[in-house]
Amino acid sequence: MKYLLLLLSLTSLAVSAADKPNIVFFLVDDQRYDFLGCTGHPMIQTPNIDKLADNGTLFENAFVTTATCWVSRASILTGMYMRKHRFTGGKIDPKRIDTSYPMGLKKAGYQTAYFGKTHFKVDKNQQKMMFDEFIQVGRRPFHKKMPDGSLKHETDIIADHAINFINKQSSEKPFFVSLNFNATHAEDGDKKNHFPYPESAAHLYTDMTMPLPKLHDRKIFESQPDFMQNSMHNDRYKWRWDTPEKYQHNMRNYLRMASGIDFALGRVVTALKEKNFYDNTVIVYTADNGYYAGDRGFAGKWTHYEQSLRVPLILFDGRHQKGQKLSQIALNIDLGATMLDYAGMPTPKEHNGSSLKPLIEGEKVEWRKEFLGEFYSRHKTIPNWEGIRHERYVYASYPEEGYEFLHDLQKDPDQLKNFAKNPEYKEILKKMRKRLRETADPLGNPFITKK
Q1: Based on C-alpha coordinates, what's the Rg of the chain?
Q2: pLDDT (tens digit, 9 = 90+) per residue, 200-213?
Q3: Contact (CB, 8 A) for 372 and 388
Q4: CA 397 to CA 376: how far, in whole Å?
Q5: pLDDT of residue 6
Q6: Phi then psi dihedrals of residue 398, to 5 deg
Q7: Which end of the chain has a smaller Cβ tally under 10 Å, C or N?
Q8: Main-chain phi, psi angles of 81, to 5 degrees
Q9: Average pLDDT, stretch 74-101?
């Protein structure tokens, strides 16, 4: 009898392992929601990403909680708001890594790999515990010299590593691979060629005139308070977007960088199909933050407007292919919990995010109506802020400047008006201030002090 029970137990474990999907995670740098074909951009060519959206789930209201590369990537890894993980550069607190989603995937029996940009450091022993393969690939320069003397773009190098990893896997054990692109981040040190693109996209957009940003009217920039006008938003705008010639050149190359990522994604999908993994693989595509790209007279990200916080998010499940769009608020801190859920693992209690899987599968669950947005750095020309992004209202406090914003997305979806001093919004302002304190204070001490 005991041998029968043992056999049943082993069979159950084998079935459980077979049911776990492979997971492939694409994380892009500096790409906002509307810079894909499937999200409405009038020119960009992203056919492979669009196909994932057509057969998967496109989240129409996906956001990051802190709009800057290093913090957002730490938040994805830990499942936590910045206020909780406390990462401001250097090494992430090891106790936050203990409950990270890669640790959970390893416990679930996954072979794991990480290729590309980090923008953070982790304890070396923890890194080995999280990943079977770990290869960091940075920019500066984007094009790397190969052993044969040729140059290859970091986007293609990262895809090569991922494909090599996939080709070594078998159907007996699930795998996870994370592709962390430096593109479409600018090469800040090169003022003439900000957006070096891979050869795969060199032929695109050559004879096209790039459309101006929707919010390009200079009056929009001039309506901003002085601390916004004199910030890095304006410095980098002058690097990239402030003349028609610069704008056309740089936007054309920015789109080429994005299309190069689409081409790399297509190569990875082909590898999955060739190994017969595609129909048992979950693919996640998102970005670490949005990007102003000239809107409002701004460059960069960092601050509280939609162009900075809102990102693309697509989740494709090869086992249940269906095209759908969801309007619920999804966050970067949900991604770890979501991938763990697909692996059959619970969300660690330390995480601030929640699994998106129930929403994708049509379950009726209570869901957030708002989230905490925050930014803190020691950079003198980037303003620090904290606020609440509600389904209708956006409240942002810049305590060091003694300044508040209140936007009504229903009446003013482009956030061109600040209702903070409008008497009609007095009670809404009080409520949003209260919600900020109720949401932020339990997570940890504030980074920002009042003026």
Answers
A1: 22
A2: 999 999 999 999 99
A3: yes
A4: 12
A5: 39
A6: -110, 80
A7: N
A8: -65, 155
A9: 96
76/81 Cα distance (integer angstroms):
9
| CA 286 to centroid of chain Cα atoms | 5
Structure token pair of residue 306: 């939609």
DSSP 24: E
Burial (Cβ within 10 Å: 0-12, 13-18, ≥19) of residue 200: buried
What is the length of the chain?
451
CA atoms within 13 A on the CB side of 34: 11
The structure tokens listed for 50 are: 């669009």
CA–CA separation, 273 and 48 (whole Å) = 14
CB 117 within 8 A of CB 179: no
Residue 124: phi and psi, rounded to 5, are -60, -40
Percent composition of the chain: helix, strand, coil (DSSP 3-state, to 5):
40, 20, 40
Strands (E), 249-392: 281-287, 310-311, 313-317, 324-331, 370-375, 385-390
What the chain holds in terms of domains, given with CATH numbers, is 18-361 (3.40.720.10), 384-443 (3.30.1120.10)
Question: What's the Cα-to-Cα distance from 228 to each of 198, 235, 299, 412, rounded to whole Å?
Answer: 34, 11, 11, 20
Characterize the bridge pairing of strands 324-331 and 57-63: parallel
Is residue 368 within 8 A of residue 329, CB to CB? The reply is: yes
pTM for this structure? 0.95
Two tokens at 115? 């290729």
Residue 296 tokens, joined: 């409002």
Specify the pLDDT at position 17. Answer: 55
- What's the mean pLDDT in 342-362? 98
- Report pLDDT for 254: 98
Question: Distance between CA 321 and CA 355 in Å, rounded?
Answer: 19
Three-state secondary-structure class, residue 83:
helix
Pairing of strands 151-153, 175-180: unpaired
Angle of helix 335-342 versus helix 69-78 axis, rounded to 10: 30
Contact by Cβ (8 Å): 322, 283: no
Identify the three-state secondary structure at position 384.
coil
